[in-house]
């Protein structure tokens, strides 16, 4: 019997050709063909799906907008994709409580816009923020350029509404920054990529919208000159709301083949710095910054208007897609090292000796190391290169993923390189919360 027949409050898609798109996300991986794709519109669908998954022995794979970078939403063997794009509700702001409640189906750009309509700010800004769903950002604990000042998604979540293995929706957390009644199950669910249960909605913390912002372009001749700057700035009390960079290879590609705005980008390597605190547009602030930066600031340019600022950010935000289009089989990583170890990291990367280009979030040490030739590299060699890269980051006090998560892409490395006590504890939690392994099986652990 068809286990999906008569599923209440849901749209069902079973035609294999319609299922093809959900075998992909923004990683380099491809999932297996799922048994079906279900778009739930109400709790009855979820209750029934959980019941049938347990009875029939199939898994449930959550999907938002499919913009993930680690294969977390890709179907594995004998799974049904649960696409949350039709989950009902809208973003509602509570200015008194400085928070916003939204269902997972809302796009992140609409969450940010709802906050801004009240003069408030929801900071998380992964570069896919115009197209990713709130749900995806919660499941993966998304980062982005301004995490270097504001932290990641989890820092902005007050409460989580989640489907657990009893088939019911539960809320963990309250609409206040203070809540300390025991360990937080809500925080455990954020970034767990749907392996313990599915997040259906969240209450998000907001802060007043910054009223000033200055965007600076910092071209340099020797890109290594950038490496001490994040630590020096922070050490001197300057906390950028973004500090991004392109190494010479990425900048040259952008300039030669990128959009109009990219052709005019200066320098052999380039950093984009942004500050958004009160006073950051004043001459005094800029003078203080120039003093601190010293000779490296020779070519510093201030974005003169909104158009220029948006042009710069448009180039930065399309870099991942642009490189993928030019090198379809590239592999892009998102390792992190502490700011103070950036120089050691790049010296280590040189010693490893494989060709890699880098751009990303220099301000918080989260680097997108891209192996552009991955498609032409022997798979065993590629695995060794990636493991060496991860080990290098970990040995410097960093980690193998700063923002994209583990999913399928980094599962093996995560299992091999983590403290066994951590894996054991996470597996015990998985068994306790999902004894029949119905939630996103084969991911992370
Ligand atoms: C970015 O910062 C995204 O642009 C994607 O995190 C990076 O492709 C990548 O690895
Ligand atoms: Zn990134």
Descriptive account of the structure:
With 445 residues, the chain is of the alpha+beta class. It contains 15 helices and 19 strands. α12 (342-352) packs antiparallel against α13 (379-395). The longest helix has 21 residues, at 306-326. The chain starts with 9 loop residues before the first strand and ends in a 12-residue tail after the last helix. The structure holds (2R)-2-hydroxypentanedioic acid and zinc ion. Zinc ion binds at residues 127, 360-361, 368, 403. It holds the Pfam family FAD_binding_4. GO terms for molecular function: FAD binding; oxidoreductase activity. This is FAD-binding oxidoreductase.
Name a few traits of the molecule.
445 residues; alpha+beta; Uridine Diphospho-n-acetylenolpyruvylglucosamine Reductase, domain 2; Alpha-Beta Plaits; 3 domains; 33% helix; 20% strand; globular; binds (2R)-2-hydroxypentanedioic acid
Q: Over all CA atoms, what is the radius of gyration?
A: 22 Å
End-to-end separation in angstroms reads: 32 Å
Mean pLDDT value: 97
- Total number of helical segments? 15
The structural domain count equals 3
Condensed summary:
The chain is an alpha+beta fold. The chain is 33% helix and 20% strand.
Write the layout of secondary structure elements.
Layout: E1 10-13, H1 16-19, E2 36-40, H2 43-56, E3 59-63, E4 79-83, E5 92-94, E6 99-103, H3 108-116, E7 120-121, H4 134-140, H5 147-150, E8 157-163, E9 169-173, H6 185-189, E10 198-205, E11 207-208, E12 214-220, H7 229-235, E13 242-246, H8 248-257, H9 260-263, E14 269-275, H10 283-293, E15 301-302, H11 306-326, E16 331-332, E17 335-336, H12 342-352, E18 357-361, E19 366-371, H13 379-395, H14 411-417, H15 420-433
Parallel strand pairs: 2-4, 3-4
Antiparallel strand pairs: 1-2, 5-6, 6-10, 7-11, 8-9, 8-10, 12-14, 12-15, 13-14, 13-18, 16-19, 17-19, 18-19
Organism: Candidatus Geothrix skivensis
Domain FAD-binding PCMH-type: 30-209
Keywords: FAD, Flavoprotein, Oxidoreductase
């Amino acid at each position: 019997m068809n286990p999906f027949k008569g599923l209440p409050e849901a749209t069902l898609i079973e035609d294999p050709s319609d299922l093809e798109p959900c075998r992909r996300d923004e990683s380099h991986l491809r999932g297996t063909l799922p048994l079906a794709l279900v778009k739930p519109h109400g709790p009855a669908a979820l209750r029934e799906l959980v019941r049938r998954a347990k009875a029939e022995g199939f898994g449930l794979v959550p999907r938002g907008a499919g913009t993930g970078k680690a294969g977390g939403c890709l179907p594995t063997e004998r799974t049904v994709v649960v696409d949350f794009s039709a989950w009902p509700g809208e973003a509602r702001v509570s200015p008194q409580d400085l928070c916003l409640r939204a269902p997972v189906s809302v796009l992140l750009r609409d969450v940010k816009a709802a906050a801004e309509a009240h003069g408030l700010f929801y900071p998380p800004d992964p570069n896919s923020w115009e197209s990713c769903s709130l749900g995806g950002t919660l499941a993966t604990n998304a980062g982005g350029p301004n995490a270097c000042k504001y932290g990641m998604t989890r820092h902005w979540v007050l409460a989580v509404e989640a489907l657990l293995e009893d088939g019911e929706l539960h809320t963990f957390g309250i609409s206040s920054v203070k809540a300390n009644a025991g360990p937080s199950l809500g925080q455990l669910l954020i970034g767990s990529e749907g392996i313990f249960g599915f997040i259906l909605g969240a209450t998000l913390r907001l802060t007043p919208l910054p009223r000033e912002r200055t965007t600076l372009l910092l071209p340099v001749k020797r890109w290594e000159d950038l490496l001490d700057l994040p630590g020096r700035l922070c050490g001197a009390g300057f906390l950028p709301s973004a500090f991004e960079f392109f190494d010479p290879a990425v900048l040259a590609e952008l300039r030669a083949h990128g959009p109009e705005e990219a052709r005019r980008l200066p320098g052999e390597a380039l950093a984009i710095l942004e500050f958004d605190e009160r006073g950051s547009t004043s001459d005094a602030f800029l003078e203080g910054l120039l003093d601190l930066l010293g000779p490296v600031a020779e070519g510093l340019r201030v974005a003169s208007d909104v158009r220029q600022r948006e042009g710069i950010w448009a180039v930065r935000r399309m870099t991942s897609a642009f490189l993928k289009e030019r090198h379809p089989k590239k592999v892009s990583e998102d390792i992190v090292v502490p700011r103070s170890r950036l120089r050691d990291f790049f010296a280590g990367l040189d010693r490893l000796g494989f060709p890699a280009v880098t751009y990303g979030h220099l301000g918080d040490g989260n680097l997108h190391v891209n192996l552009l030739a991955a498609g032409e590299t022997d798979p065993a060699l590629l695995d060794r290169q990636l493991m060496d890269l991860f080990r290098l980051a970990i040995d410097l006090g960093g980690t193998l993923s700063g923002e994209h998560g583990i999913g399928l892409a980094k599962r093996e490395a995560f299992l091999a390189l983590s403290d066994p006590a951590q894996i054991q504890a996470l597996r015990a939690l998985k068994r306790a919360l999902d004894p029949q392994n119905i939630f996103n099986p084969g991911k992370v652990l």
